[in-house]
Structures are given as structure tokens and as C-alpha cells.
Amino acid sequence: MGTDYETDVVAWASEQARLIRAGRFDLLDREHVAEEIEDVGKSEQRELAARMAVLLAHLLKWQHQPERRGTSWELTIGNQRQRIRRRLEKTPSLCGCLKDPDWWADAWGDACDLASAETGIGMDRFARSCPWALATEVLNESWLPNG
User: How far apart are the C-alpha atoms of 140 and 147, rounded to whole Å?
Assistant: First the structure.
């Protein structure tokens, strides 16, 4: 192998792609190739979690700061819902995340951290877990929490 994974991952990736295309599987850095492929899936999960956290944070802000509601928050909520739906349609295996209680706990925790930092509202004012149903509330284009 010519390029070291630890030295220059971009050059290494290009080299590994050339080896695969050439059918030179005997020369592949199999362990690192496998790690990189797994990381692609993890990256998709992180993107979904980040989008969900932003959406939930804005729903929390909408609920807890009715006097500050505005077009900007509505647009962010709508955009995140649309992007989450699109990501789930393009990568259906991500739907499994939405059924994972640990994934939800992390997304909710990140949302509460974000909402608290942006509003100054104490974490104790937010529910310990997401109080809203995914399909009928969180991802429903016409739903917004009361507050």
C-alpha cells in the first residue's frame, strides 16, 4: 500500500477506490475500509439526530416563549421537518433510529440543551423526555405546541 490511512485519509481513500475499481482486493486496507463504510452510516444518523434536535428545540421555544413566536421559528420548524422527512425517504433504514429510546433520549437532551442555551430557560422547565408523538405532532406540518 502506498498511502497511510493515518497520514492522509483523503489520499488513502482515493487509492482504496482505485484498488477496488481495478479489482485489486488483495491490496486493500480492509480494516480501515470497513471502518470508513460504517462511519458513513454513523454520519447519516448524526445528521438525522442534529436535525431532530434543532426541530425539537424550536418546538420547545415555541411552547415556552409564545411572546417571541415569529416567522423565523416557523420557517426553521418547517425546514427541519421537510429535511428530516426527505432524509428518511432517501435512507429508510434511518427509521430504526426513531424507534430507539436511547437515540430519542440523546436527541431530546440535545434539544433541551440548545433551547435552554438560546432562551435562558432552565432545563428543569422542560419535560424529562419528549412529550410529543412523532407522526402526529413532531413531524406533522400543521402542528405546533401550545404554550
Answer: 17
